[in-house]
Write a structure and sequence with these properties.
Length: 205
């Protein structure tokens, strides 16, 4: 019986070029007041607005949470699915379980004045991520059809801060449209080149 095979194909392709691009950075801090213990806050439109305001057409964006109990994740914004996410996180890290972190008598300073027993929130964050890096194409996040960028509140209600940093690629004026191809290759564990394309553009064998 024959084995099933996965088929992959390239639908769009960009050449790696060395055209002495400059990189323009634009930063923004988004302040968010959450209202639920676990809450998914959709930041996608805010990020796209930041790209438009700063003229970022091509580049990449980093979205970064400045907290250890608020994460950044990409997923779908379907209402029932978001409810499933909340249920899963609460089931994996229940707030009423015993945690060493919640025993304030054993904690070493510094302890925040507004510290709360929130070990479960830190554990949920450990399963998620603090940031996402997203390509920018044609002035917008290059997300898939159903992808949205969320800040995930894990210890609300609280006021949160999310940093957005856009790195916009801008060719130098007299070099716009002029580029030279560069080599692309991968290296094996022992350092040997296992796949290389010649500078002339010939396909790798």
């Amino acid at each position: 019986m024959g084995q099933s095979r996965s088929i992959a194909r390239i639908v769009t392709k960009s050449r790696a070029v060395n055209n002495r691009q400059s990189i323009a950075l634009s930063d923004a801090i988004v302040r968010i007041q959450t209202v639920e213990p676990i809450q998914f806050v959709d930041l996608t439109d805010i990020i796209n607005a930041h790209l438009a305001d700063n003229g970022c057409v091509s580049g990449q964006v980093t979205v970064f949470s400045r907290h250890t109990t608020a994460a950044i994740k990409i997923n779908e914004a379907e209402e029932l699915l978001l409810a499933d996410f909340k249920t899963m996180l609460a089931r994996l890290c229940p707030a009423d379980a015993h945690y060493h972190h919640n025993d304030m008598s054993r904690r070493k300073p510094p302890i925040a004045p507004d510290e709360r027993p929130n070990a479960h929130s830190h554990l949920m964050h450990l399963l998620l991520s603090t940031s996402e890096h997203i390509p920018v194409m044609d002035g917008r996040l290059a997300l898939g059809t159903w992808q949205r960028v969320f800040m995930v509140e894990l210890d609300g209600p609280r006021e949160r801060e999310v940093m957005i940093r856009c790195a916009s690629y801008e060719p130098h004026g007299d070099l716009r449209g002029k580029s030279a191809p560069i080599d692309l290759h991968a290296r094996s564990a022992n350092g040997g080149i296992i796949n290389a394309a010649a500078r002339s553009g010939a396909p790798a064998k």
